[in-house]
Write a structure and sequence with these properties.
heterodimer; A: alpha/beta; Aconitase, domain 3; 2 domains; five-stranded parallel beta sheet; globular; B: alpha/beta; Aconitase, domain 4; seven-stranded mixed beta sheet; 7 helices; about 30% helix
Chain lengths: ~425, ~160
């Protein structure tokens, strides 16, 4: 009799299935001892997050159910088109506000308190190891940086989960990505994930969970891990998960809501594929239009003049990102042909940037600094590109027309490359400046 | 099901299907006015009820916006056939009742396709070639056939009461 390879026997008595982090979290949430890739399970979610763009369609669906939402699981965050960009977006923001009031949703984030939803979910302790979190936004996979299984869903499923507290999931296969070595100067998590996406392609992790290991990962700051988990979706991934460590636990002290249980993969867990990288081989990297997989070293691009430099977003709008950009821009000026826009990812990041004097550095360099919003990243407002314009951006997508006109271009890069490029007026490897 | 083909390539992202600046309504017909506005200008005017999209790998990649499959439904698209789908688009489509078929089909703009969901066969009536696909898992077929996730959720809620 043949048993599946992944099935192991302990002491000849109990058989246990060795599982990856994704499998373990889904098994726990589905109330099962084990699950296997391909299986469809109904799992209890810890939180359902919605923003002002995906919220309205979800609320309309929700009203068809005729029940109260499971309030404590719902998190509503105004971030995409707030402060309202036009009348239609004002109506969407209002719909979220009214929904929160109608059902007494306590986890409601109004303009002035909120920030980009994923930063808020992390900062305010919703994201934690072992949790299963869904969000009606594709970059919900960001919380994998803290060891959660988090993934983006649509508005209808968010509505269903608000009513039922659970949702169907296909258990994904898991890929193991091992990044060893020491990254060079100005090489960040962003460069590593862009390099990986360049290697495996924008569907290289389609339907799969990505698990990250290796010395470079262990040494990496939580902020850089968030940038990497954030972009798992750009490889088609369902989740991008980092085994939680002391950096995560100390970050969560005094901020996490409730208790949590860290989850780690079993030693014999089965991975569909294992890929190995050396961080020392990865330079500051840029993704050229029109796919995040279209990567090249920043230093090898040649003379690529830019019209705009954008520093912000759920990928790279954290205090660590602003610090490295400010360090490069201190006592220098943004190039005369460039508009630089700096958008801290949340109110808290903004406040800290003011306290640390970073906002002053940006203002003195002639950068424009605003409060948190997703606006420009998806071509909504606050930095839309005209026909033929080019932007170097710390965001996550460079699709056709992503930040504006269909004939505009977005180059993705880390905050140091964005800052160096803003100063030079062309895409620049920051090592060129030092 | 029969329909006329619109052929797309690989990695058709949700920004192409419905650009983000129009994400200020959830209404399918309203969204349909701007479907593929940047990627294929004129599509919204020329598309007819019952038309079928055929694409290569990773259709629907990018954002989680359910506005994308809603815009396709609003435009009258009856089915999307692709070599593979981005997962959130795939979920959204099934959850709101837009049939999606994972199949490698050779077809050009204007070809006539016939899809048999039960047998798992697609016929290109223009080229007279047939293609076999693996039907959806039972859970998802039930979800699609029971009218999508809204009806499924209502059923689940009534069991609790």
């Amino acid at each position: 009799m043949l048993f599946p390879l992944r099935q192991i026997f302990l002491m000849g008595a109990v058989n246990l299935l060795a599982m990856t982090i994704a499998e373990k979290i889904l098994a726990r949430a589905a109330g099962k001892d084990n699950v296997e890739p391909g299986e469809i399970v109904e799992a209890e979610v810890d939180y359902v997050m919605l923003n002002d763009v995906t919220g309205l369609p979800a609320f309309e669906v929700f009203e068809k159910f005729g029940v109260e939402p499971i309030k404590e699981k719902v998190v509503l965050i105004q971030d995409h088109y707030v402060p309202n960009k036009d009348v239609a977006s004002a109506e969407q923001a209002k719909a979220m506000r009214l929904f929160a009031r109608k059902y007494g949703i306590e986890n409601y984030y109004e303009v002035g308190v909120s920030g980009i939803c994923h930063q808020v979910m992390i900062e305010d302790g919703f994201a934690a190891p072992g949790r299963l979190i869904i969000g009606a936004d594709s970059h919900t996979c960001s919380y994998g940086a803290l060891g959660a299984f988090s993934t983006g869903v649509g508005s209808t499923e968010a509505a269903s989960a608000m009513a039922l507290g659970s949702l169907w999931f296909r258990v994904p296969e898991t890929m193991k990505l091992v990044v060893d070595g020491e990254p060079g100067r100005y090489v960040m998590g962003k460069d590593i994930i862009l390099h990986i996406i360049g290697d495996i392609g924008v569907d290289g992790a389609l339907y799969k969970s990505m698990e990250f290991y290796g010395k470079a990962i262990e040494d990496m700051s939580l902020a850089d891990r968030i940038s990497m988990a954030n972009m798992a979706i750009e490889a088609g991934g369902k989740a991008g998960i980092f085994p939680p460590d002391e950096k995560v636990f100390s970050y969560l002290e005094g901020r996490v809501k409730g208790s949590y249980t860290p989850v780690y993969a079993d030693e014999n867990a089965e991975y569909i594929e294992t890929l190995e990288y050396n961080a020392a081989d990865i330079p500051p990297t840029v993704a050229k239009p029109y796919l995040p997989s279209n990567v090249a070293p920043a230093a090898e691009l040649g003379d690529v003049a830019i019209d705009q430099a954008y520093l912000g977003s759920c990928t790279n709008g954290r205090i660590e990102d602003l610090r490295i950009a400010a360090e490069i821009m201190r006592d220098r000026k943004v190039h005369e042909n460039v508009r630089m826009i700096v958008v801290p990812a949340s109110k808290k990041v903004y406040e800290q940037a003011i306290e640390e004097g970073l906002v002053k550095v940006f203002l003195e360099a002639n950068a424009y600094v605003s409060g948190p919003t997703c606006g420009a990243c998806l071509g909504g407002y606050m930095g839309v590109l005209a026909k033929g314009e080019r932007c170097i951006s710390s965001t996550n997508r460079n699709f056709v027309g992503r930040m504006g006109h269909k004939d505009s271009e977005v180059y993705l890069a880390n905050p140091a490359v964005v800052a160096a490029s803003a100063l030079k007026g062309r895409i620049t490897d920051p090592r060129e400046l030092s | 099901m029969r329909g006329r083909v619109w052929k797309f390539g690989a990695n058709v992202d949700t920004d192409q299907i419905i650009p983000a600046e129009y994400l200020v309504t959830g209404d399918a017909r309203e969204l349909a006015k701007h479907v593929f506005e940047k990627a294929r200008p004129g599509f919204a005017e020329k598309v007819r009820k019952g038309d079928i999209l055929v694409a290569d790998e990773n259709f629907g990649c990018g954002s989680s916006r359910e506005h994308a499959p809603r815009a396709l439904i609003g435009a009258g698209i009856s089915c999307v056939v692709a070599k593979s789908f981005a997962r959130i688009f795939f979920r959204n489509a099934i959850n709101i009742g837009l049939p999606v078929v994972e199949c490698d089909v050779s077809a050009e703009d204007g070809d006539e396709l016939e899809i048999d969901f039960e047998k798992g066969v697609i016929r290109n009536l223009t080229t007279n070639k047939s293609y076999v696909f693996k039907p959806l898992p039972e859970f998802l077929l039930n979800l699609l056939n029971s009218g999508g996730l809204v009806e499924y959720t209502k059923k689940r809620l009534s069991i609790y009461e």
